[in-house]
């Protein structure tokens, strides 16, 4: 999710220009063998996220499930960024305490002066140099799962099992195109035809996912994989923001028996719900996208207490962590309050 408008216009441009998801410009990878010049190393890198952003939330979930909290430190940006970029106004003196910067754009500029693209999260920054390493939201979590294995916690699940990768990739491609990105294409549409096309593809895909998940607990295989993480981060935002703010309103998530139970199952799984901050989510979308919501009013609803109600998905079998174990409690300072009523 970009914090600096790629084509000018700032926050007010949302919904007033054709939407296009930019490819990650900085695609260096942090690998076990360091082939891109960035070797896996505990304590060297800092993950910068916004808890509002679904793309960044993937990295938060993966980091928790794999137990990488001690290996990769965390910087959380203010959910309400300005036109310059994501900012660290949640921290004392408005600076990230590790990187010493006020804006994430400063790490981008240290990597490439006058970089013209958007400043997006998730981003991984090299702490010693203060330079951005990567903003490749598609690859960061896959590398967490496959390249960082030496630093995984004991009992960490295999989120990208090799024998299932072709199927996982195919499912993730469909989810990305029609769901993860589809809600944005609908919400930022500048014309009726464009909106209706995205809307139709979104709900057709959700209905096909309903059919798939009616007979199995998880998207691929009988354990949680990267595919589930990617779908969850859109579903958890669906009723609070996408249904109303992005006009994705054929039905609510809570009106889908299967997807609502699936989303609650994941939410109640350690590593998922304990990374979700509904306050950050709602304030970001409703206060930043002034081209869509010029008043900046943040709605009080929907009620959130039902996220912790029984889902009964365990009746389908499956083992959330496979042969592994759930992660422990969230590290001190990273705890998220349980949802309640507005």
Provide keyphrases for this structure:
about 350 residues, 4 strands, 4-stranded mixed sheet, mainly alpha
Summarize the model shown.
With 342 residues, this protein is mostly helical. The chain is built from ten helices and four strands; from the N terminus they run βαβαββαααααααα.
Describe this entry's structure for a reader.
This protein is mainly α. It is globular. Residues 4-8 have low confidence and may be disordered. 32% of the residues lie in helices and 5% in strands. Strands 2-1-3-4 form a 4-stranded mixed sheet, sandwiched between helices. A hairpin with a 4-residue loop joins strand 3 (123-126) and strand 4 (131-134). Helix 1 crosses helix 7 and helix 4 (165-180) runs parallel beside helix 7 (226-235).
Write the SSE topology.
Elements lengths: L44 E5 L4 H13 L6 E4 L28 H7 L11 E4 L4 E4 L5 H7 L18 H16 L1 H6 L4 H23 L11 H10 L2 H5 L14 H11 L10 H11 L54
Parallel strand pairs: 1-2
Antiparallel strand pairs: 1-3, 3-4
Helix pairs in contact: 1-3, 1-7, 4-6, 4-7
